[in-house]
Amino acid sequence: MSTPESQPPSEDAASVSKKAAKKEAAKQEKLRRRQEQEALAAATRSLAVDDEQDPLAANYGDVPLNEIQSKTVEDVSRWTEVGALTNTLENRSVLIRGRAQTIRAVGKNMAFVVVRERGFTVQCVATVQPDAVSRQMVKYVAGLSRESIIDIEGVVSAPNVEIKGTTQQVEVQVRKVYCVSKAAVLPINIEDAARSDAEIEKALQAGEKLVRVNQDTRLNNRVLDLRTPANQGIFRIQSQVGNIFRQFLLSEDFFEIHTPKLIAGSSEGGAAVFRLDYKGQPACLAQSPQLHKQMAICGDFGRVFEIGGVYRAEDSYTHRHLCEFIGLDVEMEIKSHYSEVMDIVGRLFVTIFDTLNKTCEKELEAVGRQYPFEPLKYLPETLRLTFEEGIQMLKDAGVEVDPMGDLNTEVERKLGQLVLEKYGTEFYILHRYPLAVRPFYTMPCHDNHAYSNSFDVFIRGEEIISGAQRVHVPELLAERAQACGIELKTISTYIDAFRYGAPPHGGFGVGLERVVMLFCGLNNIRKTSLFPRDPLRIAP
Question: Which of 314, 331, 333, 363 is catalytic?
């Protein structure tokens, strides 16, 4: 269930925050000026070439615009990905493209450039050689700006010693180098953004001060922040979660639908909606695909799922709330009991966890280097507890809680801790919630109408999924909507969909970003949102 909204920061806290922001801005401006000076010095060195004509000038330089405007069709198989560079290619000529991550000159006759492509890095060496590499070419390499996109043609070599600071344990002896896109002075350094807190603290203890890039600075420069190994891993893991979700459900005879995000009334009830004018009519952005995925079931679709945007106008200043996120939604016919929906949830998420652990080892390792975490503990068969059982566990532990109220964040975490201690799992289902804390379309329990046929699912003590059997009887649906303060005229087409025969059904919804955040043990959902939208941020 959703948690109580956090209060906006106090005036004192806002003042402190503004001071911290000014201090951070001043630090970043100082860094920017220093980088500009370094870039100017590098450019000056690059221009200070010998006056004599370089006979090897065709082997290096900036690529003219007309050469990168899809001028010619070439065989892409001649390119080698940086991640594929191994000692099996020793003495082979290769062509690679990537970013100039670091550049270092060693005298006038040698320069090193580390090339990065999608998280993989390789060291390239330009050494003056007759009829191959000129001194002017070495100076050109030394003058490249960091993060520029470059093409390098060279020969793979395998040194006898370990190459530190790169993922690939080979070098490329440069024969040709061309700059495809020159990077301007960077507002943040990628190596700074990639550091772990532990690395910064260790350096501090040793008397060395390393730059710590705070979250707002990262998000303001998100296009650079996304280039860190951890972020490359996070969003590849996120892609896999969506893929596994889709493939599992397709194998279970579900099929994918796409519901509208512009609707006439609130889909969840309450005031937390983005309202807008729709050609002179009041409308809002959908808080979930709930109403329309149920209508799809009434249309005899049987089993459906959707992956799409969800919009919540909540003023929630927390580590786990966003105003826009990607929803993974499921709806299905029920034959006899809402436990059928929980069966799908349990098998689906165990499949997701198993597959991620098997196929995303490198990505998880990259995330863990910057944001250390313990692997998620879960059982092959997902644990289920009733809400009443959960309340009793809390009471036995001395936690005071309303037996018919919702669980707040602190109580959820405490229950997660108790479940881990007793059952050895950080992933479990809590079901049969009080009806009063569930949406209007939730089916009441047959034996006690104070409870409902609903459930929440938790990872590491935090809720990630809400689900339930839905009310498919139009009269009861109208009664429940009115009790929740929803105007019937705004959902009349939804209620009417059940007047022509509707099968018992249920489903659930989960936020993609929250799944990745909790699986990877991250401390803020903004780390798993590509371009986060929260109450204070709508750009970039």
Answer: 314
> Which residue in 175, 321, 431, 432 is the catalytic one?
321
* Residue bearing tokens 């459906």: 304
pLDDT tens profile 162-207: 999 899 999 999 999 999 999 999 999 999 999 999 999 999 999 9
Judge whether 78 counts as a catalytic residue. Answer: no
Beta bridge partners of 74: none
Whole-number Å distance between alpha carbons of 5 and 445: 28
**Distance between CA atoms of residues 360 and 240, nearest Å:** 8
Residues in Cβ contact with 208 at an 8 Å cutoff, skipping those fewer than 6 apart: none
Cα–Cα distances (Å) from 225 to 192, 194, 195, 509, in that order, read 10, 8, 11, 29
Determine the angle formed by the axes of helices 11-47 and 135-142, rounding to 10 degrees. Answer: 170
Residue type, 230: A
Helices (H) and strands (E) in the chain, counts: 15, 17
Question: Can you read off the two tokens belonging to residue 186?
Answer: 């960077």
* Average pLDDT for 139-158: 97
| 46 is annotated as an active-site residue | no
pLDDT digits (tens, 9 = 90+) for 270-322: 558 999 999 999 999 999 998 899 999 999 999 999 999 999 998 988 999 99
CB–CB of 224/213 below 8 Å? no
8 Å CB contact between 118 and 84: no
Q: Reply yes or no on whether 466 is catalytic.
A: yes
Catalytic annotation on 337?
no
**Between β-strands 505-511 and 93-106, what pairing exists: parallel, antiparallel or unpaired?**
unpaired
User: Cα angle vertex 328, ends 323, 333, to 5°?
Assistant: 130
Q: How far apart are CA 95 and CA 81, in angstroms?
A: 8
77 catalytic per annotation: no
CB 509 within 8 A of CB 288: yes
